[in-house]
Amino acid sequence: MKIDRLLSIVILLMNRRLIQAKELADMFEVSVRTIYRDIESINGAGIPIVTYQGSGGGIGLMEGYRLDRNVLTDRELADIFSALQSVSSYGGTEHTLLMEKISSVIPPSQTAAFRSKTTQLIIDFSPWGLQPILEEKIATLKEALEENRTVAFDYVNAEGQSSQRSVEPYTLVLKGQAWYLYGYCLQRQDFRLFKLHRMKGLVKEKREFIREDRDMQELPWSTDYQRVTSASVVSPILLHFTAEGRHLAEDRFDSTELQPDGHGGYNVSIHYPEDGWLYGFLLSFGTALEVLEPEHIRQKLGELALGVAKKYAT
User: Fold this and answer.
1) If I label 38, which of 25, 156, 166, 255 is the partner at 20 to 30 A Cα–Cα?
2) In this protein, which residues make up the domain named HTH deoR-type (predicted)?
3) How many CB atoms lie within 10 A of CB 203?
């Protein structure tokens, strides 16, 4: 990702007087043109970088300029390192170089303490087992994001309807346990959130686009979810877990949500949107769960369960 590459370049220039643009391009697997755009971005951030021409030339920090390592404390560097470890757990091997460079600015006398800080919290986003298809999609989208190129794919929505989309990609989002792409859909002429698992035939197109400056502090993927679900939310849905299924309830819900039923089981009140996902979620608990309220959801689950039973009837 671009921010990782920019930080890596800065740290490299802190430790080396000069470096060739071609060497940087090979190191980060991008074009020389991209490296020079990175240099412009770094200059714009207030770190003066000079390009020296001729033999023995290259890219370096302006003579006399020194970047104070203490602009970031060891704790802050450790937090950045830990965040990169988390991202790298899901096909983010390009972050390894930056992690090595951060480690290189830690004095040997503080290495053990730094390692201790970076192992106090580990967040691993990768699933149990490999998902090469999903990792390939993420890699393609990262390339498109870097190059400001549109992507095309067939998309199947939650209702099972399929459509062809061409999208200007803006942000990869890991929300809950699923990956999404947030971008501008050329067919809908608006920003949309697309679930990667619902994408088929994803390709990077040749068409470039000018990225609009959007304030991601507003978390559009959160507000979009609230907007979509506000009209369909059911309030409340009362669940009952049997004593045999209490471990499933404890695994899925916070202890503050679990109300003992006096017989070893739990009652749980939830507020989820009523859609296909909800029914699949409730059925996944099998006979360990019974929906007590509302009645129409009980009836719907009964119909679905009967349909499943008929498929396996002998």
Assistant:
1) 166
2) 2-57
3) 10
